[in-house]
């Protein structure tokens, strides 16, 4: 039985295993992303949040996903290159991940169970759905793809100030 986001291991784009337990004590924002989506410019806002708060214990974790409109067709290497060249991303970027369906990553099943969408729906509706996680690895809130990263500042600050 998983009790926290810290119970999961995921693969980074370079294939290296990343234990999410290494993020204990940090506030996390977990996002399913895509390179060819109308929301792709949110990468810029996510990087700004990371730059502004990382010294205070905040990390963005991006999980590219190709389940919505085939908007992430590339390889892990091409996704990494795209994000570096276009957005100069410095936060962790993971391997392409399934977030819905029978093959969905257990991490995303955990997130959806602990922060269902509108009307209690579990499935993720589109790219750039965001999950805010506290320092204990508990899912605090789910945000719609249309919620811009800068709109999360108050929630992030309030979690950072709890420590």
From TrEMBL:
Alphabetical list of SUPFAM superfamilies matching this protein:
Thioredoxin-like
Give GO MF terms, alphabetically. Answer: peroxidase activity
Residues forming the Thioredoxin domain are: 1-161
Q: Does the keyword Oxidoreductase apply?
A: yes
Matching InterPro entries: Glutathione_peroxidase, GPX_AS, Thioredoxin-like_sf, Thioredoxin_domain
The active site is formed by: 37
Question: Which biological process annotations from GO are given for this protein?
Answer: cellular response to oxidative stress
Q: Cite the entry's keywords alphabetically.
A: Oxidoreductase, Peroxidase
Protein family membership: Belongs to the glutathione peroxidase family.
Q: What is this protein called?
A: Glutathione peroxidase
Q: Which organism is it from?
A: Bowmanella dokdonensis
Could you read off the lineage of the organism from its UniProt record? Bacteria, Pseudomonadati, Pseudomonadota, Gammaproteobacteria, Alteromonadales
């Amino acid at each position: 039985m998983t009790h926290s986001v810290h119970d999961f291991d995921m693969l980074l784009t370079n294939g290296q295993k990343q234990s999410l337990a290494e993020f204990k004590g940090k506030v996390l924002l977990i996002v399913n992303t895509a390179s060819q989506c109308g929301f792709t410019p949110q990468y810029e806002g996510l990087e700004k949040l990371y730059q502004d708060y990382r010294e205070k214990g905040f990390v963005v974790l991006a999980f590219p996903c190709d389940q919505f409109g085939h908007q992430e067709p590339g390889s892990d290497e091409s996704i990494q290159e795209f994000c570096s060249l276009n957005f100069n991303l410095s936060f962790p970027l993971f391997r392409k991940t399934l977030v819905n369906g029978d093959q969905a990553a257990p991490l995303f099943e955990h997130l959806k169970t602990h922060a269902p969408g509108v009307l209690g729906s579990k499935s993720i509706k589109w790219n750039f759905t965001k999950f805010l996680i506290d320092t204990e690895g508990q899912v605090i809130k789910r945000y719609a793809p249309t919620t811009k990263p800068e709109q999360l500042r108050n929630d992030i600050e309030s979690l950072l100030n709890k420590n």
